[in-house]
Amino acid sequence: MEHWKDALLKDPQYPFFALIGLVLLCYPLHAKWETAKLKRRRTVRTRGEVVDEETRSASNVGMDLGRHRVPTRHPVVVFEVEGVQHRVVSDTGASWQTLRRGQTVDVHYNPNNPDDAGVEHISLDAVEQLLLWLLPLIGIGMFLWGLVNLSNLTF
Asked: Engineering a disulfide at 88: which of 59, 95, 117, 141 sits with its beta carbon 3.0 to 4.6 angstroms away?
């Protein structure tokens, strides 16, 4: 046990990488839980039209690649419920244009509060699926790298 303690104190980055790897491995579980929660709340479906896109900078969302900030584009969709027009900005965005103006898409909304809505489209789902595969793969790599290096330190 003392040997492990010395190894952890000598090189603390290895258990850190293993821990971060475990967190990334758990991302799909968290994403599925959040999706299920939204589906329980947003039970009604209608069609909406993409009217614009909202660009979010890397300071509040998106990626920061060194000096180059990569903004994300989030489609803005307008839909109608009982003669009242509502506007929703997609929670999912990408650095490329996912939906074009004039496209019609499915919108799921909360019947008690139509402003609580989400956009569903295959290209947006593809972005989410990419994260559901990519982050755990990175997590596996980080976890195994941390464990292998920890075991090399202790033996």
From this structure: 117
pTM: 0.60
Q: Give me the DSSP letters along 86-133.
A: EEEE-S--BSS--S-TT-EEEEEEETTEEEEEEEE-HHHHHHHHHHHH
> Would you give the DSSP letter of residue 43?
-
Q: Tens of pLDDT along 18-64? A: 888 888 888 888 878 887 888 888 889 999 999 998 888 755 444 44
CA distance 73 to 99: 9
Please state the domain extents for the chain.
Answer: 30-154
Q: pLDDT, tens digit, for every residue of 15-27?
A: 787 888 888 888 8
Residues 14, 18, 19, 24, CA torsion sign: positive
